[in-house]
Amino acid sequence: MKGIRAAAATGAHLPLHEQLVYTDGYCDAFAAALLQRYPGKLTACELVVSDARYAKKLDYPADSRIPAHVFCMDAEGWVIDGEGRRPVLEMMRSFGVPKGYRHEILAKTPGLTPQTGPWDAIAHALDLMEAQGWPDDPAAIPRADARLARNFRQARKEQQAAMAERNALPAGGEAALEF
Question: Helices (DSSP H) in the chain: which residue ranges?
């Protein structure tokens, strides 16, 4: 953002398939994990789009209010999600919401209660942040680099391989939980 200097980024981006998981279905769990990791430093938010052009792209009625993404925002107005730290307009573009579309950004704190499914998506997100060396200061989280958008098919293949690995039958013959 103009005029605001981010702290020097430390840590690494999440693997592509994890970026996909946490921006395409489990974004609310990632936001909840961010709130746990950075208590009092972030606000959970939701992007809700109410533009007929967006609704048409998704085959929704023109007057729909469509929840597009849950993420966190820091005090300087930067978005933080599974792809890293970025300006609001970059996040919106990555979700197909160009400048000029009718939308709202709604605060979700307190009361963010993500549906985590049969695996603990919040604990997994916290483990990923730790494993990738995400810093104690959210201003130093790695800057989103649009790698997911450029490599979406690869990310989907990696995600499918990870799901197959997690769902492989263990020695006892019982199926593992799906994510």
Answer: 16-21, 27-37, 52-57, 88-94, 121-131, 147-150, 152-166
